[in-house]
Amino acid sequence: MKIELNKKIENDSIGISIVDSIPDSIKDISKLLEYKIEDESVLFLPEQNKIFVAFEKISSQNTKVAMAIAMRKLLTTNYTKAHIIIDDFHSEVVIGAMLGFYKFDKYKSKKSPKNLTLNIVSKNIEKKDIVDSQHIANSIMTVRDIVNTTPEDFYPAIMAKKAQTIAKENDISCEVMGDEYFIANNMGAIAAVGRASRHESELIHLSYKPQNPKKKIVLVGKGLTYDSGGLSLKPSDFMVNMKSDKGGGAVVLGLMEAIAKLQLPYEVHGIVGAVENMVGGDAYKPDDILTAKNGKTIEVKNTDAEGRLVLADCLCYAQDAIADIDYMVDFATLTGACVVGVGSYTTGIMGHDDRLKHRMVKSAMNCGEEATSLPFNRYLKKQLKSEIADISNIASSRYGGALTAGLFLSEFVRDNYKQKWLHCDIAGPSFVEEIWGVNPHGASGVGVHMCLEFIKSLDS
Ligand code: BES
Ligand code: ZN
Ligand code: ZN
Predict the structure, then answer these.
(1) CB within 8 Å of 399: residues ≥ 6 apart
(2) What is the mean pLDDT of the chain?
(3) In this predicted model, what pLDDT tens digit does every residue of 220-252 receive, in sequence order?
(4) Domain residue ranges in the chain
(5) Bridge partners for 289 per DSSP
(6) Catalytic residue at 234?
(7) How much of the chain exceeds pLDDT 70, in percent?
(8) Ligand 1: which of 304, 346, 409, 423 to mutate, most ligand atoms within 8 Å of CB?
(9) Residues that place a CB less than 5 A from ion ligand 2
(10) pLDDT value at position 124?
(11) Which of ligand 1's atoms lies nearest the C-alpha of 244?
């Protein structure tokens, strides 16, 4: 999609209007067509070269969705030019439009050739605002592409390659470590999970170091390029779409790309555990006891609770490799329980510092993502006890699974970092089989915009 800032509107361009009441000019026709002001309702009037999207209350978050809806509608038409006249420009106009225009057609024999030029007419608009918005949207689309790609085409080595490409293009440094490193550094948890796969596991470390950074931020992502469940095999219906288990890792890659492109004044490290959880003669087993990088022993009771094992070693690695971390945030499609608890559209935010959790929830609200804070408690923590190891990889109760997974991760966060750490469970919104908000069927890229808002909020 091309974005232009052209005061002149061309004849064959369709005008997009976001409305919270019926404009006089369409009073009659809207009555005829029974068009009402309801959230997300669309009125397409080709004779007038107009498209209307209604919201009961217009906000920047709604504008983002309205633009996406308008673009989705235009994808089904022959229009190649659109314009919007808007008083106060904000980045959501561009981001919403680009996200709505996204199509994943890698596996379609017929590609969608459609392109569109969006002309934004506004008084207070600067080129840099547009370019920054494009960076954000492009990174979200990077995440969608990664997550939507099949496990045959996207396995750990490809994730590492993708990270290296992002690094090369953006003045980021990139280190990739494999099994040899895991064995040499006592990372028994990540090593075990990927053992039955024909693809070697990779730990990816991207570093973005601008001059005079304000703070040091570490982002950690669960990059399960496929989660079959391992020997605790998933039932067939639950295995479908488990290519999306790399969603957290993809968010970290997308964030690194966006942060570098936006030249944010923070030192940011992105760590991704790229692993495939498979079955086979060499698979790790329920009953195994693994030793993580920090020396803690873990009794495996279910090989499908593999993300926390991978993240355990990634978190330990981050704290060993990087000194004086100010904030550490992990992203993971960690538990089905989180989806059961808060639904498909919402990220579960966990951690030990209420204010930090709240900051992340507010950042999500600011950019139109859904997130909610989930509360740890000491009773749930006790459910992770193991009789023969330091901790078990699943809880003794079937309730509160999102929190017990978060509490498991917390065991691998050092005491002095506990208040600086957040865990974002994106199992629900990362991949949804329906169109919702700015998101298409499939991968959403949720987490990128929220975390960018979070990082920007650290200034104040
Ligand atoms: N990757 C899954 C979680 C998941 C479920 C993500 C649905 C997206 C959609 C994770 O590795 C998993 O299998 N978790 C188990 C944990 C259980 C064995 C304690 C789960 O949620 O059932
Ligand atoms: Zn699993
Ligand atoms: Zn998983």
Answers:
(1) none
(2) 97
(3) 999 999 999 999 999 999 999 999 999 999 999
(4) 2-125, 135-459
(5) 299
(6) yes
(7) 100
(8) 304
(9) 227, 304, 306
(10) 83
(11) 8
Buried b (16+ CB within 10 A) or exposed e, 2-16: ebeeeeeeeeebbbb
How does 76-108 read in b/e, with b if 16+ C-beta sit within 10 Å? eeebebbbbebeebbbbbbbbbbbbbbebeeee
State the residue for tokens 């026709």. 29
pLDDT digit string, tens, across residues 178-226: 999 999 999 999 999 999 999 999 999 999 999 999 999 999 999 999 9
Q: What is the DSSP string of 104-150?
A: --TT-SS------EEEEE-SS--HHHHHHHHHHHHHHHHHHHHHHS-
Q: What is the pLDDT of residue 164?
A: 98
Nearest-angstrom CA–CA distance, 386 and 53: 55
Identified catalytic residue from 308, 357, 381, 420: 308
Q: What is the pLDDT of residue 125?
A: 87
Question: How wide is the angle at C-alpha 402 spanned by C-alphas 397 and 408, nearest 5°?
Answer: 80
**Class of CATH domain 135-459:** alpha beta
Task: Give the per-residue pLDDT at 113.
Answer: 76
The yes or no reply on domain 2-125 and CATH 3.40.190.150 is no
Q: Which of 86, 37, 95 lies closest to 65, judged by CA?
A: 95
Alpha carbon of 334 to ligand 2 centroid (Å):
8
